[in-house]
Amino acid sequence: MIGPSIKAKLLVFAIFFTGIASGILIANFYTTRVMTSSPDTTTNPPGREQKVQRDINKFYDYLGLDQAQREKMHKIGEETRHEFQELQKETQPRFEAIREESRTKIRAVLNDEQRAKYDEFRRKMDERRKNRDTNKGFNKNDGNPGGDRGQRPN
Fold first, then answer.
1. Using an 8 Å Cβ cutoff, are 9 and 102 in contact?
2. What is the pLDDT of residues 22-67, one digit of tens each?
3. CA-based angle 100:86:59, to the nearest 5?
4. Nearest to 70 by CA among 82, 80, 84, 58
C-alpha cells in the first residue's frame, strides 16, 4: 500500500510535470503562432509561414479539434497576437527609457578610456541586435522589447 507521504510526493511531482508540459505547449504555440504571425515574406525567412501553419495543424490534430474548434482557436490566436502587439507598443517606450537611463548611469561610472570601449561594445551589440531582429522578422518599429535580452553590460 502506498503511504500518505509517497502519495503527497507523487501528487507534487504530477502537478510539477503538468506545469512543465503546459508551459512547453504554450511557449511552442506562442513562438510558432503569435511571434511569427506576420504573412510578410520580406521579413520572415521563406517557408517559415508554412512551417508555422504545419505545426499549428499538428497541434490541432493532436487535440482532435473539429473545423469549428480550429476556427475558434485561430480567432483566439489572432486576438491574442493583437493584444500582445498592443502591449508591446505601450511598453516599448518604457523599455527604451530604462535601457538609456541604465547606459547613462554606466557611462558616468567609467573613465574616458573605459567609456570609449563601452560605447564601442554597445555599438556592436546594438548592431547585432538589429541584425538578429531583422532576421527574425522584427524591426525597431515593431517594438521588440527583448532586443537587449541576455547581453551584458548594459
1. no
2. 888 787 777 766 655 544 444 455 678 888 889 998 999 999 999 9
3. 115
4. 58
pLDDT, tens digit (0-9, with 9 covering 90-100), for 106-140: 999 999 999 999 999 999 998 988 888 776 654 44
How does pLDDT run across 80-98, given as a tens digit for each residue? 999 999 999 999 999 899 9
SS3 147: coil
Rounded Cα–Cα distance for residues 27 and 15 (Å): 18
| pLDDT score for 41 | 43
Domain ranges of the chain: 4-38+45-92
Q: What is the pLDDT of residue 32?
A: 67
Instruction: Cell numbers for 22, please give them.
Output: 503546459
Interior CA angle at 130 toward 120 and 86, to 5°?
130
Q: CA dist 134 to 5, 13, 103, 126, 143, Å?
A: 53, 41, 23, 12, 12
Longest dimension (CA), the chain: 72
Pull the grid cell for residue 51: 512551417
